[in-house]
């Protein structure tokens, strides 16, 4: 059985490498390739492939936004179909047999994620391939998809229970991503997550909160600085970031800075009874304390 597949990745070399490996594996027909999330949605709806190799970090829409958009379109299409097929019989509204919306393809995430991040996202998706790709791992991912297709789940049909299970698994994945990429976990948790995801170049790293020295916002971009490296948060505001941080450890010292109290190296008196903080990062960054937070600083360190 030949598997129809798409390759979606914003790096041409990565697409070419994966296409070469799939050709060497055999049994996979790459029907199209795309370079971003917007193209991904269009190509999936055009070709209805069995399998999509989907990069996570892409311009326009990331890989998980692609899945969310497809699921939303499926739900909308199903609702519209149900509305058209609903008929009145004997004064009661009776829905006729509804054809299921187009089934989602199987997804294999092709990412540059750190091993720990991949392990965190292991919620029964088909597979994950780390860059640079390895032929044996590509073959393993293809075989996993082949087993699932043989069991009844396919992009063009299959058992409803299998389809429902696949959607449930993807929804679980998206909920996990919501928590790890900077969105609040909800009131039922009551605790900040122990780790945060920080993007450093093309990698998404899981970072212990204790390792974070400070976070700063500049032109809408939040930098997260640890003792060994710095990256960016997916949060849009420092207020949003603060919801994910341990309030016993992190303090909004200034409107543009959040600091880890445990990573303050030195408190330096400044002009007009103000202070600056020298942090414990490589640059020993100096961070101002706003006048509104001076009282809190004195309380923290008994100044």
Can you tag this structure with a few keywords?
5-stranded antiparallel beta sheet; Rossmann fold; OB fold (Dihydrolipoamide Acetyltransferase, E2P); 303 residues; elongated; alpha+beta
Describe this protein's structure.
This protein folds into two domains: 3-180, Response regulator (Rossmann fold, 3-Layer(aba) Sandwich), CATH 3.40.50; 196-301, LytTr DNA-binding domain (OB fold (Dihydrolipoamide Acetyltransferase, E2P), Beta Barrel). Helix content is 34%, strand content 30%. It has eight helices and 19 strands. The chain has helices spanning 12-25, 37-47, 63-85, 115-120, 135-150, 160-180, 238-242, 294-301; strands spanning 3-8, 28-34, 51-55, 86-89, 92-95, 106-111, 127-130, 153-154, 157-158, 195-200, 203-208, 212-218, 221-226, 230-232, 250-254, 257-260, 264-269, 275-279, 286-288. Strand 6 (106-111), helix 4 and strand 7 (127-130) form a beta-alpha-beta unit. The radius of gyration is 24 Å and the shape is elongated. Residues 87-101, 154-160 and 179-191 have low confidence and may be disordered.
- What is the β-strand count? 19
Fill in the CATH topology of the largest domain.
Answer: Rossmann fold
Could you name the CATH class of the largest domain?
Answer: Alpha Beta
CATH architecture tag of the largest domain: 3-Layer(aba) Sandwich
Form type = elongated
Largest sheet: 5 strands, parallel
Number of domains: 2
Given the structure, what is the number of helices? 8
Q: CATH superfamily of the largest domain, please?
A: Response regulator
**Which strand order does the major sheet show?**
2-1-3-6-7
Q: What Rg, in angstroms, do the CA atoms define?
A: 24 Å
Mean pLDDT: 78
- Termini separation comes to 74 Å
